[in-house]
Design goal:
Number of strands: 5
Order of helices and strands: HHEEEEHHEHH
Distance between the termini: 14 Å
Largest sheet: 5 strands, mixed
Number of domains: 1
CATH class: Alpha Beta
CATH superfamily: SCP2 sterol-binding domain
CATH topology: Nonspecific Lipid-transfer Protein, Chain A
Strand content: 15-25%
Length: 136
Amino acid sequence: MRPDDLQGALERTLAAVDADPRSGPVLRAAGLRLRLELTDMPLVLNLATSDDPAHHLRWSFSDDVDWEPGLELSMSSETANAYLQGRLNLPIAIARGAVGVKGGSRSALLYLPVARLLVEPFRNSVRAGFPTLALD
């Protein structure tokens, strides 16, 4: 798995969710502020709701952002790919130590359920242009 493929699939996914009239508002209402760090490749994603009324989300693949994450997740790229394709139960992965978590329990309880809204768009992104990420 290459960092460019994973970042490309995430970019396509986030653009789709940002434009979606159902998922975008739900993520905005949750006040999402999430940092995802991949432990085995140089890739980090900072994701937050947008202040721009024309967008629901804003994101950056660096730590140079003007917001603090409410929740930070760290995991391998393999674990992230499986989670983003709906093949991994995140609470179980956290309990097994495959996913590191930093942040308040309130943030986790609020953000993790709404983050599931990324699964179907991520699968679609993988199918549409990133076959190296596809899980059998």
